[in-house]
Amino acid sequence: MLRDEFVKGTRGLPPPIRFANFLDTCYNLTSRPAGIPRVAFHFDTKTLELPDKNYLYQAADNLFCLAFATPPPGSTYSAVIGNIQQQGMRVSFDTGRSLIGFSVGKC
């Protein structure tokens, strides 16, 4: 669903291309055009807007891919939000109060 909504938001850009089996939403970019949507996680009362580098993976020179992948049909793997999305982020857990926090960190 995320991929489909992202592609809808890129109207006006050339259609996305496939770079690898799991990187199927890639664009040739030299800079961030106005047609690239922002990606954010919405929680009950807060929103965490991701920096470009946390959802646009540079796969090759001037080739940027949406860094969310859906496992192939029939796969036993599930999609993971983590590696790219959490780079440079600090995640804190307050299990006593059932809270989770995010902040930009210098890692």
Topology of this structure?
Layout: H1 2-9, E1 26-28, E2 40-42, E3 47-49, E4 56-60, E5 63-66, E6 89-94, E7 99-104
Antiparallel strand pairs: 1-5, 2-3, 4-5, 6-7
Note down, in words, how this protein is organized.
This protein has 1 helix and 7 strands, in the order H-E-E-E-E-E-E-E. The longest helix has 8 residues. The strands form 3 sheets. It has a 3-stranded antiparallel beta sheet, with no helix packed on it. Strands 2-3 form a two-stranded antiparallel sheet. A two-stranded antiparallel ribbon has the order 6-7. Helix content is 7%, strand content 28%. The chain is globular. The model has no long low-confidence stretch (mean pLDDT 83). It has a domain of 74 residues. By secondary structure, the chain is mostly beta strands. This is Peptidase A1 domain-containing protein. It comes from Coptis chinensis. GO terms for molecular function: aspartic-type endopeptidase activity. InterPro entries: Aspartic_peptidase_A1, PEPTIDASE_A1, Peptidase_aspartic_dom_sf, TAXi_C. Belongs to the peptidase A1 family.
Q: What is the strand arrangement across the widest sheet?
A: 1-5-4
Q: How would the global form be characterised?
A: globular
Distance between the termini: 31 Å
* Structural classification: mainly beta
Mean pLDDT: 83
Protein name: Peptidase A1 domain-containing protein
Pfam family, one: TAXi_C
Family: Belongs to the peptidase A1 family.
Organism: Coptis chinensis
